[in-house]
Amino acid sequence: MTAHTAGRAKPGPTPPSSLEPDALLRAGLATQLTRTAGPCHRPLRLAKTVLAIGRDNGQLRALDTSVIHARCGNRRETRCPSCASLYKYDTYNLIAAGLRGGKQTPDTVATHPRLFVTLTAPSFGPVHLGPTKNGQLRPCHPRRAGEGPDCRSWHREGDPLIGTPLDPETYDYAGHVLFNAVTGKLWSRFTIDLRRQLAHAAGVSRDRLGQEITLSYAKVAEYQVRGIVHFHAVIRLDGSGGPSSSPPAWATADLLENAVRHAAATAVITTPDVPGVPGRTLRFGAQIDVKALDSAQSSGSDRALTETAVARYIAKYAAKSTETTGIELQPLACRACHGTGARRVALDAGASVIRFCDACHGHGRDHGSWVELDREGVTAHARRLVETCWHLGALPELTSLRLRAWAHLLGFRGHTSTRSRRYSTTLAALRIERAEYQAAANAERTSADVVEETTLVVNTWHYLGRAEIGPENCGSPPTPLAAAGGPR
To answer: What residues contact 202, with CB distance under 8 A and at least 6 apart?
Structure first.
């Protein structure tokens, strides 16, 4: 990988790579984020070459040749705690800006109807239960005789049985995997039904609803211990002009809550009927949690939440994945054939023929990734979910779900965190803001002239690979998200 950048040299700045690390860390938000996050766990090694070309005589001379480390940018906490911390900080600021303003979002959004919604997954069979959220032990399915499998144990936190089926033979693994695969479509159907219900409650047509209000949201997907996805979302009502305009008087938090509950109950996705795998009507679970955020509209309510608590809660899960189920895998499908086991080979005269993939010998699996399923600690439940994805992914009727390509995520193929277009700022804007801040700090620190005004400077970057840094060198734990939010 090679990249080139060119431009007219200006007096003053020296190449950032020639500065000591302490010189790059200045007082302010950028310093706090970088220092609390710690060094990257798997940084990219880049070779930088700076060339100067005289515009008048064309003389070429090298100014700097060095090797620097760039952040890997991985959002998963188990892969790189440092980069995951920065990702959580950015997600926190994005969510908080949509709740209280800031980051180019008007402060008036704090007065709009806002809800914190949790949409759970349905049951595909009873599973072993662990402690409650407050850590209190509870009995695991004490059932009467003849009412199905039971377990009269009290599972403590960390018990590998938690989240696994009481009776694996009757557990609906196909429905479990298919629900993960269609959750993105199910959320889309939910938002459609939500707008439809709001239009009905307001007494206007769906076409006119956009002239009255704007529905904004931000959500994150969380894996439950049993390996299934559910959503946490912030849903907000704005005026027709977006965050900068107030919604009409009829758009209240109570009306939005009723519409959310109705849409969550009516949104359905039907899977095709496949031989051996009957079609299913998939919907969200019956346990739907809707809470109003702390504002003038919800003061005194025992269900009220603070904006900071919600932003921190969503940001926490933005850096997590399947590790909550006890596994974390690389993509299992062969990269050459995408899990199909066959490749189209071009022949002479524009013809082509389909042949077995040489990389995986026709079985479509990446051998190195599948070996991880045999390691100690992977439960039989998690392995069976992966194998169910692989089996269903071979059926022509389910090809569009790409279950083999996403078998390492147990069938879920959506983004972990998403938002509507007009909710607040973007992650890209937050990263640019941080980069500009550090660039300004670097410019203040530098003073030496590198080349003359008449010199063209060309920076060339070559990718050298990754540098491994042990977990013991990953720096101190990050500070609380609220403290790292920075100025609004």
So the answer is: 209, 212, 213, 248, 250, 251
